[in-house]
Amino acid sequence: MTDLKNIIHDLTDQYFNDSVEIRRHIHAHPELSKQEKMTMDFIGSKLKEYGIPFTDNIGGYGIVGLIRGNDLESACIALRADMDALPVTEVNELEYRSTKPGVMHACGHDVHMASLLGTARILNGMKDRFRGTVKLFFQPSEETFPGGAIQMIRDGAMENPRPSVVIGQHVFPFLPSGQVGFCPGKFMASTDEVYMTVKGKGGHGAMPQTTVDPILIASHIVVALQQVVSRNTNPLVPSVVTIGRFISEGRTNVIPETARLEGTIRTFDEEWRSEIHKLVRRIAGSTAEAMGGSCEVRIDSGYPYVMNNEELTSKLISLSGEYLGENNVKPMQPKMGAEDFSYFGRETPACFYGLGIAWPGKGDGPNLHTAGFNVDEAALRTGIGLMAWLAVKTLNG
Q1: What does the pLDDT read at residue 397?
Q2: Could you tell me which of 94, 6, 114, 36 has the C-alpha nearest to residue 357?
Q3: Helix (H, G, I), strand (E, B), or coil: what is residue 68?
Q4: What is the pLDDT, as a whole number, of residue 61?
Q5: Torsions phi, psi of 354, nearest 5?
């Protein structure tokens, strides 16, 4: 075990600077969901350089790489990184800041890709030391429904050979670099998007009695929806109903014809998830009708909740402790954030863990999805080496 660990540590040190440069290149050239063509080509060029065969344009602009060990009849596992950026304008003053106005890797997917490329390079150089096959999933469009994971699965990413395990990691700004976090069982919530159009009767703001005010109706709907969680949800089932956008094109003296509401629904129970949809429709419709208007409701069903297979996760926690030291492996609580990694867990046992990226001793780093998001690049040492270690140890049993 010590020999294997030392080999991975040495290779991680050898490839670390290259991985930092890769991360910076990807960070400077972000692409939004369903637009990751340039990113796909860059990853493909690196895999060619490393001598790793791959297929591109999977599930959109996804890539599936293949590293075969010394016993092809043994198990196959998959390692996953997502590729897309967010519609955020970066404020960091960095040499490698985003070159695309309004687009930024504000969720760390640049770290995920650079890390997986480093891991792939290590594994490809030690193919004689593990049995079976490692599949590399570079997945597009995690940030936008329906998500690239389900599209890759539909395009056959999970076949020929079929992985018995899928492992992924995600940067977390409240963990210092050098640490990782695991949450067995339910880890991240399901996510759905709700869109409402409230219709009333517009008119002059000085004569409200001649109107049916959609702004007032929509305001009552926002308040009424709070009872979905406070009075209808089992307190033991985490749930969120949030309205994050309220749009109405009136003026100081104009009551408009319509108002629009947009929000998110999240939970950890599929049956209750369906019930929330019904409640939201009923509350919005009945509230609008009672006030003389109407409300059209559209709910776009998104990702299911992320389920970390408990047996697999327990094994990976133990292996991570062997590689990093037990003090650097932390327990994590379930999060109301969402991830389409969940689809892989519906296909086979899977584990999604947190990679610490905060500068040690400086508190939590800038939060995900913010214009100032940044990482301690030393985290790439952990991301690269640990995933290689977990892959080899999982395949070798």
Answers
A1: 84
A2: 114
A3: strand
A4: 98
A5: -95, 135
